[in-house]
Amino acid sequence: MSRSEARAPPAMQNVTRLPAANSVPASRQPPPPTAEDEEDANSYDSDDATTLGMLEFSLLYEEEKNELHCNIIKAKGLKPMDSNGLADPYVKLHLLPGASKSNKLRTKTIRTTLNPVWNETLVYHGITNEDMQKKTLRLSVSDEDKFGHNEFIGETRVVLKKLKLNQKKTYNVCLERVIPDDEEGEERGRILISLTYNSQQSHLIVGVVRCAHLAAMDSNGYSDPFVKIHLKPDMGKKAKYKTQIKKKTLNPEFNEEFSYEVKLAELAKKTLDISVWDYDMGKSNDFIGGCQLGITAKGECLKHWYECLKNKDKKIERWHVLLNQNNIEADD
């Protein structure tokens, strides 16, 4: 297994995020699973049950691999959407809250049926225990229309903190009629960074490993991403580095390392700006997202920096969420 294969990308494989205001009232959400037996289906009553249909799926969170496996099994009795009295259904997954256009997964489309069978497993990578405590999985069923706008049929949601670690749980639920709002959000993908402080040479070694589920910036649905890092303040001309550009991808692998000569006591006072950009030939590059590591950071960004300072000569790798708040200076 290659080095990059050993680390799956974070949240999402196909590619996003809805506002908190779009959450479903508690009274309309499926109750948490209570049956221990995987075969016990979790169902609930719904006014729309007879018109929208049922969706059967299973979820498994593999803690060690940081993976959420979503097996979309089948649907039954879907609402007819086409003139022939049938539909061309597919299932789309969103992690809420999540990034716009960068954390959706979807199944293939099954043609001309109200009882589609997918048996398709979609995997979110880089899902941490913290994500499992905070996020909700939205599963929506839609009808694919070759000539117009795909039509929403119904949805259901699962609060992930209800899911037991490393135990597969099967659900069989009635679809609810919740009209999707315009999607928005701040998360623009994720980046895997390694930090090592070499105590013998007094160097900080920053590894830009890979990104996952970046927001698409180009009309072709992709980006041409590269990463900039900037250690500040007071590092002079050697403060900034750039990776190579990766063409037409939302999941680039860089595997590049950069070195800063800095004393450990000084490093504790510094901030590492990390920003991901979409390269545009002949035009200014588009900012995709960024994060900052340092003692003034919060959450995982602070934890990663602290672990690097504390564990000299040890490589520490962590995934970080990229936000679209550009407190990084404009691209140069």
TrEMBL record:
InterPro entries: C2_dom, C2_domain_sf, Rabphilin/DOC2/Noc2, Rabphilin_Doc2_C2A, Synaptotagmin. GO terms for biological process: exocytosis; regulation of calcium ion-dependent exocytosis; spontaneous neurotransmitter secretion. Residues 51-175, 187-320 form the C2 domain. GO terms for cellular component: extrinsic component of synaptic vesicle membrane; neuron projection; postsynaptic membrane. Residues 1-48 are annotated as: Disordered. GO terms for molecular function: metal ion binding. This is C2 domain-containing protein. SMART domains: C2 (SM00239). It comes from the Eukaryota. Residues 35-48 have a biased composition (Acidic residues). Keywords: Calcium, Metal-binding, Repeat.
